[in-house]
């Protein structure tokens, strides 16, 4: 089992910055990759970014590319999402997820991010 706890959400002005954190515990040695997803009211959950746990390769959704940066600190078992120049359309509940096998198997409880215009 892997447990994930997100933090850092809140209210931010458009054009500002915010950093989300996700601390992993439990069987962290089994983590293959970590990701951030988000779900806005009335919408499906969508992929935001992912990072491989060993090599650190990253992927981003087109909607956040160039504005958001995912990173990890293996020593702290923590993954971050740096959100620069957020837009009101980035408002959502942000979820951290851990991939063990072929899918993202473990999820955090989510943290609300609200971007004001």
Question: How is the secondary structure organized here?
Answer:
Elements: E1 2-7, E2 10-13, E3 17-26, E4 33-39, E5 46-52, E6 58-60, E7 68-73, E8 78-84, E9 92-99, E10 104-107, E11 111-116
Parallel strand pairs: 2-11
Antiparallel strand pairs: 1-3, 3-8, 4-5, 4-9, 5-6, 7-8, 9-10, 9-11
Q: Any overview of this molecule?
A:
The protein is mainly β and 117 residues long. It is built from no helices and 11 strands. It is globular and about 40 Å long.
Relevant terms:
58% strand; 11 strands; single chain; mainly beta
Quick one: how many beta strands?
11
For the terminal residues, how far apart are their CA atoms? 40 Å
Order of helices and strands: EEEEEEEEEEE
User: What fraction strand?
Assistant: over 45%
- The helical percent reads under 10%
Overall geometry:
globular
Q: How is the biggest beta sheet arranged?
A: 7 strands, mixed
Mean of residue pLDDT values: 96
Class of secondary structure makeup: mainly beta
Evaluate the radius of gyration.
Answer: 13 Å
Low-confidence stretches: none
Number of helices: 0
